User: Fold this.
Amino acid sequence: MAMGVPINFANFLQTVPAFAEFSPQELEVLEQAMVVGEYPDGYEFIGEERRARNMFLIVEGQVIATHRRSKVRGLDVMERLGPGDIFGLVALIDHRPGWATYLAAGPVTAAYLPANAFELLFTANAPLAYRFQSLIATQLVRDLRACASDLMAAIDETPKG
Assistant:
């Protein structure tokens, strides 16, 4: 899909592995709750030290997750995300400032789920909510594994002696 070409968001949602367990009706509800937008290179979706207001799903392009480790080391790129990747979940769940900054690496098309819709899906007592909660749990496990992997790599790079 070329940037700038109108997308069929409903069809895109059907291709995202995270939504594989969702029924067509549930995907339709999700599609209606999300807002698709185009963002320029360098756009800050979520900033470190600020509360996230949305959950994002990348449709086209790349987003980098960075973290300011220290004044000496500067900015570390922790992860590159692409189409089908979701971010912004943790800050919406724990209502705390983000632990990373998410920036567009080139032009990006992304959909966002506003915090109030996220909260409704996260806390509702309905089959759609259960699938959404499962999606969140799976994403949090992926995030935890990525952090653990980064931590182990940092430990392996530490000079011995």
